[in-house]
Amino acid sequence: MTERDPSKGPAPRDDGAVDRQRQSRDLHRLEHGGGDSFPAGYRVAGLDESTRPDPGAPAVSTAQRGATGRKTSTGQSQAVRQRRRTWANRLLGLVGILLFLGIWELLPLLGIVDARYMPPASAAIADLIVKFGDSVFWIAVWDTLRAWAIGMVIAVVSATVLGFIIGSSNFLRKFTNSTIEFMRPVPSVALIPLAVLIFGVGIESALLLIVYASFWQVLIQVLYGVADVDAVAMDTAKSYGLGPMNRIRYVIFPTALPYLMTGVRLAAAVALILAITAQLIIGTPGLGAEIARAQSGGAYTSMYSLVLATGMMGVLINLVTRAVERSVLSWHTSVRSEVK
Amino acid sequence: MTTQPAEHNPVINQGSMADTPDGQLPVGLTLPDGEALLSVRNLKKVYQTDGGGIEAVRNLTFDLPKGELTCLVGPSGSGKTTLLKAISGLLEPTAGEVKLGGKLVTSPPKNMAVVFQEYGRSLYPWMRVRENVELPLKVQGMDKAQRDKVVDDALEAVGLDHVPRSYPWQLSGGMQQRVAIARAVAYQPEVLLMDEPFAAVDAQTRADLEDLVRRVWRQLGVTILFVTHDIDESVYLGSRVVILSSSPTVIQQDIKIDLPDERDQLETRSSQRFSELRHHVYEQIQLAKEGFRPDAAKAQA
Amino acid sequence: MRFLKDFFHIIALPALLIVAWIVWSSQSTSFFVPTLEQMSNAFSSTWTWNRMQSDVFPSVARLIAGLVLSIVIGIVVGLLVGSFRWLRQLMEPTMEFFRAIPPTVLIPVFMLLIGIGDDMKIAVIVLGAVWPILLNTIEGVRSMDEVLSDTSHTYRIDGIARIRYLILPSAMPQIMAGIRQSLSIALILMVISEMFASSAGLGYTIIQFQRSFAIPEMWSGIVVLGLIGVIMSFIFQIVERSVLKWYHGQREMENAG
Fold this sequence. Notes:
The complex is a heterotrimer of chains A (340), B (301) and C (257). Chain A has helices at 15-32, 62-67, 75-84, 87-109, 121-131, 135-167, 170-183, 192-199, 203-227, 231-239, 244-281, 287-296, 300-339. With 340 residues, chain A is an all-alpha fold. The model of chain A is unreliable at 1-17 and 33-83 (pLDDT under 50). Chain B has helices spanning 80-87, 119-122, 129-140, 144-157, 173-186, 203-220, 231-237, 267-270, 272-289, 294-300; strands at 11-12, 17-20, 23-26, 36-49, 52-65, 69-73, 95-100, 103-104, 112-115, 191-195, 223-228, 240-244, 249-256. With 301 residues, chain B is an alpha/beta fold. Chain B is globular, with a radius of gyration of 19 Å. In chain B, strands 1, 4, 5, 6, 7, 8, 9, 10, 11, 12 and 13 form an 11-stranded mixed sheet that branches. In chain B, strands 2-3 form a two-stranded antiparallel sheet. Chain C is built from 11 helices and no strands. By secondary structure, chain C is mostly helical. In chain C, 86% of the residues lie in helices and 0% in strands. The longest helix of chain C is centred in the C-terminal third of the chain and has 38 residues, at 159-196. Chain C has one domain (51-256): Orthogonal Bundle (MetI-like fold), CATH 1.10.3720.10. Chains A and C meet through helix 4, helix 7, helix 8, helix 11 and helix 12 of A and helix 1, helix 4, helix 5, helix 6 and helix 8 of C.
């Protein structure tokens, strides 16, 4: 049984052959809806998706697949799809938003809901535009962002350091596991009374909640990441005499980085929720406090425009963290694939 | 054909030229109306992309008589999967038609089953082996008692009666492909399409599975269209081999495999005739890979 | 022996922390750190059956109602939107915006629109918790494996059977991931809606203790809230493990290979 694989025939000789090769590759992509031939038996996992990975099952987001050297089956098709996402499709999304705003506009106008309690969309948007020229609004935005950013830095740094320390020791991992699993689901808002008692309405109150909530998101991801380090890579590093610090730097950190980025992205969203919530309930200065004030003062249009503003802030934070994640990881995978 | 040395002497079913909407082209074996089980006529597929159309399949015309095991072989990227998807009604052809039992195929027909190459992705990972085989019958509305019997028989036929409670992903690649074959067998189709089903299993398992396909084919009398890029496999398995050109695909040659019906991995493969046929198909494939076009060649001649 | 070791690992650190607290609190004069005795008194006097009936069970009932509604709405709408490309493209940006709104700001909005009753609190939970489930379901439907989808077509598994045997199970890993995110959002919303606008419920009770400087009672309330979170996550893990048994098994297989 020789020459089982005819595709390993003579190498292409002329430009025509190269052309045909490219053509056949194109064809293959079309036939299979993207992705070149992946290993047999490899199934496109349901979670193999870069945009919304599951915080609890981290080993499956596209980025992490790439980092662990597994071929991402959706990777290429994703890129193709992205290219094909024409303006027409985006237009459809825009139509959706306009449709939503239209319904919102009509609900109070037709008297389906009381216009006092739910002013039409146009009024809220007009109010928001006025706010864009108002320094009080920008101070509130700044307060919110500041609490968010400080909380994130504290949570990410402490969780990363602790995660690497705990993760690199088998004993520590087992020793802390039950405590982490018990503390993690405790809702951070349970700490509100404590925060108020200790810190009052200062920014520290908000920070306590933000840090508590985001800390676990990052810690868990880092622990997963460190646990994912390839045993062979680790043994290789040891056999070449790399010390613990160098092993962390050259083996553990690169493997855990995509997990860390996932953790940061999830933490960013959670941190914003807690920042706004602390302001809403405790009265720490910021957009949340403004919303509470608008609501109790009967400035309902203003309340709606502030809610819109928090949504925009959420979208913006999402976009930025995703962009950061992508750029960090693209650098990361390109470096890694060169090493291979 | 001008390129074939005389001593090979393969029986060419029908490599003759015919008038098609795409000009003078070689066509495969065709039968008079009503005699073919599956008939493919002037099938064409052009994919539309941003950079214009990519013509995958230019023109294919051939018939499958009832009860035959036909192998389609072609160089990689010769549009084999496109062809198969068009035949199975998963893909709408740009032009031409596919008829099964005289009826035009526009969506997956009832009496046809397909076994895909990617066994790991064609079995339901959330169902056990038995449930996987049973599901199409259950959806069809077959009653429980009959279903049980059919499933048992199918599992036994592929040698899997000992693992019905396993999940597919707990099995080896070859075993998983057996499950997929059992599912197809239990579905009791008239036509079974197989898309490079053994391309991803190791050589020894592949030999076993090839014999399994031959056995199932002879026992059940089902008509099989077996797509492969493996020349040995096509010659060993088929009673007929249709060789495809490189893309945009036309039929390069359609030959009869005149090996005895009883085939054996050792004896058949070491026989003189097998070697001749293999040689012939190999040459044709090489020609196809180098860009030889039967349509263009004839135009020059 | 092995069992003892595992047991040690589970119990050692929590025990250490509790002992540290007992020792510290017995020596500390800090107003914020109750002693063991104060805590146990607070627990037995505060969390009586009456209190459970008036403040804890209604809260938990609202939480469960909100979650169940979120799951049903999220999956049904997600299946629908995920099945039609144009619908997905039409609605996705709007839904992404809703998901990005910190859900707690909806509480003042809903207070205005539907008052401060149970229906408001449940509505807030649903409107906050439905997005992760909805968007994950859409993603799960969209990322259906093509070969599996083709296979189902060739075996003519269509209509309801297709949803039941193919689409739903194949999207299930993502749906469960969405539900997991929704659990914590729902719990936050339960507490905050009671803190913001209520005269009963767990959130309200805890805030009242804090306002009246009943420190041990407040701490006990925090612990009760924490316990609810822990129990919820425990139940979810059990359900998830049994629903996605195939998924985890398959992943283990892949990783081992």
